[in-house]
Amino acid sequence: MAAAKTRLITLLPGADVDLARWLLSLWGIPYREEPHAPVLHAIALRREGAGPKDSPLLLHAGQHLPGVDRIVAALDADAPSGLRLLPDPAAEPALHAEVTRLQHAFRWTMGMGTVSWAYHHLLQDRALIWDSFTTGVPAWEKAALRLGGFGVVRRKLTQILKLDDAAAATGLQAVSAAWDEVDAMLADGRAYLCGGRLTLADLAFATSGAPMVLHPGYGGHLPDVKACPQTIRETVFALRARPAGQFIARLYSDHRAP
To answer: Are 9 and 52 contacting, i.e. CB atoms less than 8 angstroms apart?
Structure first.
């Protein structure tokens, strides 16, 4: 019953969407996801009085919570013992500030780099991104994409995100800079980025970085690296081999339910 009452309306492949899935799982909040294809997701959000940038939209216990920031603000303080992911600003002000800085940088600066690189390359081959666009979405959305809508969505995303080779290269630079920072942080042997415990900074890095390493635990249905062209495989394997890439794999293995 609780799962039916709590709804998560999503743009299926989004990194913040996977972050929201992870948060709800860790907090033990059962929910029903209602995934949608890119661009078409705006229709579902509009029905709930939300805008196209309000994914993931959580409807929970009478609350209308658009986006990860509002989900965390509303629910993290009441999380079970040991699972509060944003440190208390009153009790741990320095740690709160560092976690806040990192999670924002990973979700937005690095995250937009991931979007630019991944969408640019994966949109070149419909087969690579089809599952990310269609798994579990309403039947009419899948039919629309199959009957010519995929080309429309691809053009729209290319226009909105200003995708081209230069944008992908700039995006990869932003990702590499974040990998450099995380590699340096992990060099002292720490298990987590901040405060010796799992925080929102860790999960933000994992979810925004997972599409760059095509991690199979990511909830956005990424393609198998073996199906990708050599240019994608080279980048993926190089990032996987670095400490930051291995950190993402460990976080999904240790803290994400299958």
So the answer is: no
132 close to 221: Cβ distance less than 8 angstroms: yes
Residue 153 sits in the same domain as residue 100:
yes
What is the identity of the amino acid at 213? V
Residue 60 is predicted with a pLDDT of: 97
Tokens (6 digits) for 139: 């039947």
Q: Look up residue 78 and give its DSSP letter.
A: G
Burial class of residue 172 in the structure, from the number of CB atoms within 10 Å of its CB (0-12 exposed, 13-18 middle, 19+ buried): buried
Say whether pLDDT at 221 is over 70: yes
Contact 18/218 with Cβ under 8 angstroms?
A: yes
CATH classification at residue 211: 1.20.1050
Residues 215 and 131 in one domain: yes
How many whole angstroms separate alpha carbon 63 and alpha carbon 133? 27
Query: What is the C-alpha separation between 204 and 103, in angstroms, rounded?
Result: 5
The domain tally of the chain equals 2
- Residue 124, helix vs strand vs coil: coil
Residue among 83, 59, 53 nearest 71 (CA):
59
Q: Is residue 38 domain-shared with residue 126, that is, in the same domain?
A: no
pTM, two decimals, is: 0.96
Peptide bond preceding 13 in cis form (omega within 30 of 0): no
Q: Is residue 235 within a helix (H) or strand (E), and if so which, with residue range?
A: helix 230-241
Whether 175 has a pLDDT exceeding 70, the answer reads yes
152 token code pair:
């429309």
How far apart CA 204 and CA 181 sit, in angstroms, is: 14
Q: Would the pLDDT of 4 be above 80? A: no
What domain range is 128 assigned to? 93-255
